[in-house]
Amino acid sequence: MNNKQVKILLAEDEDTIASALILNLNLAGYEVIHASDGSKAIELFKQHNSSIALLLLDVMMPGKSGFDVFSEIKKLSPSIPVIFLTARDQSSDKIQGLKLGADDYITKPFDLEELLLRVKNAVRRSSLSEVKNIFSFSNCSINFDNYEVKDVAGHTLPLSKREIGLLKLLTSQPNKVVSRDKIIEDLWEESENASSRTIDNYILGFRKLFEKDPKNPVHFISIRGVGYKFIE
Q: What is the pLDDT of residues 124-180, one digit of tens each?
């Protein structure tokens, strides 16, 4: 996987260290999302969790510690790899981190070349190191491989093959209108007698899943007399 496709969530409250890490990770080709405290790290992960390949978490941060952050994120993504960063060189901290499932534990001050190597190794082990057929928008995501979606509330739900097919048809052409005839031709057999009302019901279901206000949709739009379009 090309590093430019890899997104890393960095939670570090010391500006100097954070700036150095961001600079060197960017130079290595990684995309970095930075949070200066634990609560913000959790918020950012919820927004980008389908595309984040690695967590770099400082243990000692304002509010929630790195351990607290990882414990909460694990509930959302059990297999996400993590490297803890800390100025504390205590075996008890390392044991706690490893018990939580840490992939690595680096004590400050650290050698940047060594850290980049450890990041590379952790990403390689990540389940996200292989390109997955996942489409993300707003706080939601669609996994076209396993027919699961993450809705606007952060819940992971299974959908039918036809629902996923319609989502793929719409999201593959963002901001473009897809006609009802095209949808029916691609997703239904002639003998099934699908109608505009049939598709309307699917769109209503999508709005309940993915729209903050289903009555005033911003992503799944109906164009009267023509068809539907998806807006990112």
A: 776 544 545 788 888 899 988 888 999 999 899 999 989 999 999 999 888 999 999
Q: Which domain holds residue 87?
A: 3-129
Between the CA of residue 136 and those of 29, 50, 147, 184, 191, what are the distances in Å?
21, 7, 14, 25, 34
CA of 112: how far to CAs of 47, 53, 54, 83, 136, in Å?
28, 19, 17, 14, 31
Q: What is the CA radius of gyration of the chain?
A: 21
3-state secondary structure of 109: coil
**Domain co-membership, 174 together with 75:** no
* Helix count and strand count (H, E) for the chain: 8, 12
Helix H or strand E segment including 156: strand 156-158
Q: Is residue 215 located within the same domain as residue 116?
A: no
Number of compact structural domains in the chain = 2
User: Which residue among 95, 129, 163 closes a domain?
Assistant: 129
Residues 7 and 36 in one domain: yes
Per the rule left: phi > 0, alpha: psi between -120 and 50, beta: everything else, 112 is alpha
